[in-house]
Design goal:
Oligomer: heterodimer
Strand content of chain B: 5-15%
Radius of gyration of chain B: 19 Å
Helix content of chain B: 25-40%
Distance between the termini of chain A: 33 Å
Distance between the termini of chain B: 40 Å
Structural class of chain B: alpha/beta
Number of helices of chain A: 21
Strand content of chain A: 5-15%
Largest sheet of chain A: 5 strands, mixed
Largest sheet of chain B: 4 strands, parallel
């Protein structure tokens, strides 16, 4: 890993003009003149000492008071060196144009479209710059600070967006007409809301386009309107198959900014429940994928495991699915007395269910015929699109945030990062199955270390005091009141926190202005980066294959559309 | 079918059922309205269309799975075609982008049709009081049963389905009330002419 000084020196040397490093902050940050951005991007990617192959995130930020109102913010990561940087490109309101970096990283595709949709920053040179989350009848740009969060626009039947090519008939040399087929947004195989429009030549897909945003619930705007702790329930509903992981990711990012740390017991419980959530997520992903391929039984087997994990979560937090259990600085309350035996029982219970499922599926002729070689993507290609998580590991790149940048003490646990090399649907299945086993191993080790202790830190400017104290001590009551009414006091600044979500790197880019509410909360959803490659993967496959690929990529609409 | 089954269904008023009995009390025939008979069949064989969009869809899956098992209540034949189903379960947040799709699916369903709104978002927009979220699906389509919760527990949805079954039997669903009103209007119109 190159040190901060080395990175800054290297970039300054190559770009003496137009790139200005910013002091302080969690990452090496540069303010970039938009004229040099294309050259800088190419240099950052190709220079072997820098090697920023992964474009983690692109987003926009609105600063109405500034002379240059908007800022396009890029987060880059180098897998080889393990370092990150942040680029900021300021642009004025009258000319909000930034050159597109789609030519350098394909992964910029949807991220740039989203920044355009939300803030109205135009990306010059982008091949398909149009709204992505909001519907076509939407007026204005929702994440601008002067946009009223309650202002809705109605979309009428017939006003939906259609890809331009879908309207034009196309004939080939033999005068056979191709056919345009619409899948979704309400379709049994989309498990949520995703619309795919494909052009078929016979049975083979020759062109595809994906439309998302059918579940855009305005997470980022909502989090600007709520106090720091009130954002936690919203994070639960991002990836609703594994809600705990989102809450942990958000709280770790805020804690990093506030300079507090959760007590060891809280960290261990967060870790155990995160791994249980990962298991739940993989179970639903595998099960639903198999279900779409026609194998109903394994889903029923595996849902039993999920139902049993639910009962543990319910005992801890009171809710089954969206549990809102994490708090900034710790947890909402301690786990029940029988937590350890209950989780131990799960550890005995889940492996046989997984084994049953594997016996039915892994060597199953039909399953393998339908998944092997289907939806293949090479490692370089996957990385270029910004993939992370199990889908990237199935292509052979062993990047796991838990190993590369450990948090919650993952470095002290003995577990492996499973990878596959073929990068097809079957590889993604097999990686997920193995990850469930590794998660079980982590939980087993964590249970042995669980010691009694506090579950939330003592820094009461950010963390709620225990309820008993609120009822008995004046000071605690005042802290409680201030935290609930005004929100936690998070020092002004910005941070990019990243954790390993069930689908890949879950990033939270958080800006605080020192007030009780976040100035900006930006989520880097792993699903989003993965799904921008989906239409390109479909080409050459048949319609039934599209269902197999879709399931193996694990679409979670809440995270995809936020 | 026993007379008891029918006796719990008023079917639209008293005096419309009659059962002749032999001197020993056993029954020879009964009369009822065809609607009451059909409603009895309909309520016990609901075919849901799961319009799952978000978190609630995950809990809807739990309801279908072996642990909670909606099929115990005669509503397990999940169909993903609106033309084959009579119960629309809107599970999850509906956005302005999704609303026309939902309306179209509702319109494609054959009558009689019923709607369950599952979860806080579908009922009221939930805690998403925001620029892209429908503040309750009843802005667009009539709803028979609202199931609160974020997401509702599977028990809550089961209760919602059972409640809908009771409503069907008592003729209280939106569709039945509309149909009854139309009939009454037609009768009234005929009376006026005579």
């Amino acid at each position: 890993m190159a040190s901060r000084e080395e990175i800054v020196a290297s970039i300054r040397q190559a770009f003496p003009e137009g790139v200005r490093p910013v002091e302080g902050g969690d990452l090496p940050t540069f303010v970039v003149d938009r004229a040099v951005l294309p050259r800088l991007a190419r240099h950052l990617k190709d220079d072997p000492g820098l090697d920023f192959k992964l474009l983690a995130d692109v987003c926009g930020v609105d600063h109405p008071g500034r002379e240059q109102r908007f800022e396009a913010v890029y987060h880059l990561y180098s897998l080889q060196h393990g370092h990150r940087i942040r680029l900021k490109v300021p642009v004025g309101e009258d000319d909000p144009v930034v050159p597109s970096v789609f030519g350098v990283w394909k992964g910029a595709d949807w991220f740039e479209r989203e920044a355009f949709d939300m803030l109205g920053i135009r990306f010059d040179g982008h091949p398909n710059l149009k709204r992505i989350l909001c519907h076509p009848a939407f007026q204005g740009h929702a994440l601008r600070k002067d946009y009223d969060p309650g202002q809705r626009w109605l979309l009428r039947e017939g006003e939906q967006d259609e890809p331009l090519w879908a309207r034009q008939p196309q004939e080939d040399d033999d005068h056979f007409e191709t056919q345009v087929l619409n899948l979704g947004p309400s379709h049994p195989a989309t498990h949520g809301t995703l619309r795919t429009v494909v052009r078929l030549d016979g049975e083979v897909i020759t062109q595809a386009e994906v439309e998302i945003g059918y579940l855009h619930r305005c997470f980022e705007k909502m989090s600007e309107r709520h106090t720091w702790n009130q954002v936690i329930p919203y994070t639960d509903r991002l990836n609703y198959c594994s809600p705990m992981i989102n809450g942990v990711g958000y709280c770790l990012a805020v804690e990093k900014l506030a300079g507090v740390e959760a007590p060891p017991r809280a960290q261990l419980i967060r870790l155990i429940l995160s791994e249980l959530s990962r298991i739940m997520d993989h179970i639903v992903c595998i099960g639903a994928n198999l279900n779409d391929l026609g194998a109903m039984t394994p889903f029923l087997y595996m849902y039993k495991a999920r139902e049993e994990i639910y009962s543990v979560l319910e005992a801890c937090a009171g809710g089954r699915l969206t549990i809102s259990y994490v708090r900034i600085g710790g947890l909402a309350n301690d786990v029940p007395a029988d937590f350890v035996p209950a989780v131990r029982w799960l550890l005995q219970r889940i492996p046989p269910l997984m084994n049953d499922m594997e016996k039915l599926i892994t060597r199953n002729r039909i399953f393998r015929d339908r998944t092997e070689g289907v939806g293949k993507i090479s490692a370089a290609e996957a990385l270029d699109w910004g993939w992370t998580g199990p889908c990237l590991r199935a292509s052979g790149i062993p990047y796991d945030v838990r190993k590369a940048h450990p948090y919650l003490g993952y470095e002290t646990f003995d577990f492996k990062v499973p990878i596959a090399t073929t990068g097809d649907t079957f590889a993604r299945y097999i990686v997920r199955v193995e990850e469930v086993r590794q998660s079980l191993r982590i939980i087993e080790q964590a249970l042995e270390r669980l010691e009694p202790g506090p579950i939330i830190c003592d820094e009461h400017h950010v963390a709620l005091p225990p309820k008993e104290l609120v009822y008995t001590e004046m000071e605690a009551l005042i802290w409680h009141f201030k935290l609930i009414m005004e929100g936690a006091r998070i020092p002004a600044g910005e941070v990019y926190g990243f954790t390993e979500g069930a689908n890949g790197e879950l990033g939270f880019y958080i800006i605080s202005d020192g007030g009780g509410k976040p100035y900006r909360v930006r989520v880097r959803p792993p699903c989003f980066a993965i799904f921008q490659a989906y239409p390109h993967m479909l080409v050459g496959h048949m319609v039934p294959d599209s269902v197999a690929i879709l399931g193996s990529l694990n679409i979670i609409a809440g995270e995809l559309d936020r | 079918m026993t007379p008891r089954d029918l006796s719990i269904s008023p079917g639209g008023g008293s005096g419309e059922r009659a059962a002749a009995r032999r001197p020993d009390g056993s029954q020879v025939f009964l009369t009822t309205k065809l609607d009451a008979l059909l409603d009895l069949a309909r309520r016990n064989s609901l075919w849901p269309f799961p319009f799952g969009t978000a978190c609630c869809a995950i809990e809807f899956m739990s309801v279908m799975m072996s642990h909670y098992d909606l099929s115990r209540f005669g509503a397990e034949v999940v169909r993903f075609s609106p033309r084959q189903s009579d119960l629309l379960i809107v599970a999850g947040t509906v956005t302005d982008k999704m609303a026309p799709v939902m309306v179209r699916i509702y319109e494609q369903m054959a009558e009689p049709k019923y709607v369950i709104s599952m979860g806080a978002c579908a009922c009221t927009g939930g805690f998403y009081r925001a620029y892209h979220v429908v503040q309750g699906i009843d802005e667009f389509i009539p709803v028979d049963v609202y199931v609160p919760g974020c997401p509702p527990t599977p028990e809550a949805l089961l209760k919602g389905v059972v409640h809908l079954q009771e409503m069907i039997q008592q003729g209280q669903t939106h569709y039945q009330r509309q149909a009854a009103a139309a009939r009454a209007a037609a009768r009234g119109g005929a009376d006026g002419q005579s």
